[in-house]
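Review form for a predicted model. The reviewer records the input and the model, then writes brief findings.
Reviewer: anonymous (R2)
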Amino acid sequence: MSATGTAEAAGQDLPVADGFEEAAAAKLWALLPAVHRAADSADPDLPGPLRELLDRIACQVAVLRRGLDRLWENQSVETCDDWVLPYLADLLGTSLVASMDARGRRLDVANTIDYRRRKGTVGLLEQLAADVTGWECRVVEFFRVLGRTRHSLDPEIGRPADDADPPAVRRLQEVSGLVGALTGTPQGGFADLRSVVGARQSGGPFDEFHHSADVRRGKGALGRYGIPEVGVFLWRGAVLAVDRATPVPVAGCPGHYCFDPTGRRIALWQAGDRPATGFGERWTPLAAWQVPGPLTEEMYRAAGRSSPPDAAGSGSAPLDAGTFWPGSLAVRRSAGGGLLPQGQVEVWPQVGRFAVGPEAGEVEVGYHYGLFSRIGAGPYDRRVLGVPPVADPLPVAEVAGGAAGALRAALADLDGTGTVVVTDGLTSTAVADVGSADAPLADVVVRAAGAVRAVVRLDDSGGPWVFHGSPPGAEPSARLRLEGLLLSGQDIVLRGGFADVALACCTVDPGTGGELCEPPTMWQPSADGRDLRAGRVWVEGTVRRLTLDRCVTGPLRERGGGTVETLCAADSVIQAVPSDTGGALRPEAVFDPDGLLRLLRDRRDALTAWLHGRLGPAAAVVDAHEDGAAVAADDLAAVVAALNHVLAAPIWDAVRFAGRAVPASLAAAAGAGPAGADLFRLNRALLAAAFPLELLDAALAFGDGVACVERCTVIGAGHLHRLEASESILDGPVRVADPQSGCVRFSAWSSGSTLPRRYESVEIAPGAPLFASRRFGEAGYAQLADNADALVVSADGAGRPAIRSGSREGSEMGAFCRVGSAVKERSLLIKYREYLPVGLTPVLVPMPAPDADGQTLRGRAWPPM
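Model under review:
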């Protein structure tokens, strides 16, 4: 079988160099008389029109040759090409769902006969959900959980304590569904609330209590508990397994640690553990400890007290489930010291904390966490089907992340060209700048090994991570690629000239804002007391092409005369977290000091001239500034103090701000005559709108070039020169300097934006509650809320306004578009029409994200702080 045939069987339509086209073209050309070959072209090195015609014919000959070679393989659904699947489906009399992907269509055809043998059973309904969507599923017949009066035809529910073998009787009752496995609640009877684990399952897929009938149409949380409804609970998120990570010690609590290497409180998840019987004839329903969902403290405690499961795996209650240790989480001694016994570790899974005794010494952890999709730095396979891997430049150096100074030494040893591969997920605490003004980098790759998340977390004294490209004045030719890196509190600075800078599956920690208390805090502290501040990507040189692929980042900005010619971002989340609490202007809130002082010095318009005249003694600092020179901290503080004095009085004047892109809402608010703190906040907003690259707290801030944003979620404001957006969510106002170029397609945009022409897009309010969470590290981060479509203000186009199904392919907009949640749900409902018993209605229930803070706060014994 040819190489091309193999690729096509795997669902790829990629040209493979099997030589068929070249061989057929050479043969046809040789059969042509020499006189015609000679007359085809005056230059023997250039093909003429006749040779071009034969080459095109040869391509079709090669297609026929491959088809003949694959006749045998195309008779089997496991090895056939994608185009054969509809023909095999016709032979079986099954209808393929057009919206299903290649994987789902192939499984549908392959399992059609098996589906029909088990049509209408709960096991089949779960298998259909898994095959069509790829998600874990549990199906509940809601008529079984209706409260009712038992009658004489119902089997009796005896008391196991009165029988000769109480455990056997209780087990028979549980398997028969006569009593709840967790609570012991009898079928149709009153709820037994003595089991904390069972009570927490109320309203979910493992609910053992009973409900009154609801005759409304089943949808979401309404109309579930009726006779014709069948609940399909879907776990849509991705559970990612961290094998090795460096925990963060908790300040003030010796022996206490956070699982997360950035020091966040994150909810731990339990690993999915479907029984080995799968969906076959020995199918058994999932138990609560087998689903890939958040691990509650009560479930962890119950499992920790249990006995190991029997060899057949027939247990049906947490008391038979064994333990989550070490399958879902583990604590090990560092340097291969072995797994700590569970009894020596106290774990609070809902906040991601644990405690060990002093005898444990240095430890490392393994755990699971949840996210809606595999984006950002994570322990998953980063390869994309059909996309060839990028070759690493030589030499290649492999370093261990946990080895002290290993990453820094490897980076310092790079001589312009090379690759540094981090082989484990332990935290690196030091890096070195790559290249310099005298010895710039040429081609450098810094990446994690396959299915590894490399963590870099410097101390507060660490500066930005600087990469030096081609020197100023030279042709930008340097190439840089970062892949699989998690940078916590770390800025990336690009200086010099770059032909290409790519970030793939990276996380530049967007930070976590503080609490709205008195006084308000700027950043949430980590477990060891350090601020969870945002990391940014700064462009101080010239970058021809900046690429983001499946990344989570803080703001991307230019400063100091930097420029990005083309930004290509796909399947990424770009977030801006407010850099101050809204009071007086601080030096940290001036994002481009060189640019601000240059504008005030040159006084090219009425606003800058007016501001320069009110700077007082700080005007001398401004006048002495040289382009591109670093601004001293004292000088910047003096200018900021003078601006704060100016902002205390009204600054709005229509003539003064002429030519500045000031939103109409700000102009209207200034005309209302605010006073006090409201006036100061308004003046700051006016100044930020007038100087967006220098003062606007934006997720994207580029003064030149074009930004191509595809399937991205941009949380925060933006200032761009040109914009091409498709299937994206622009959560904050985005102002485009050249709205005559570009287009916004199948996207959600915020009111107050200045955008190019729009097509099939929807308008939302800035900062609308679109997401389950805006706090990085929580399972619902950047995930669309269930009521997102209700937040649409207006829509462009004749279609129904929608965000959850508003993309070009009918999926949701934003960074998780490629997951295709809406498409998979529609496909599943279509297939259920064929296999669900007559009269029953499926109710799809996506398992919700955790509470607003990423955890479930009910009934917890908190660890000491």
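Findings: Residues 592-674 form one domain.
Further findings: The longest helix spans residues 49-69.
Recommendation: see findings above.
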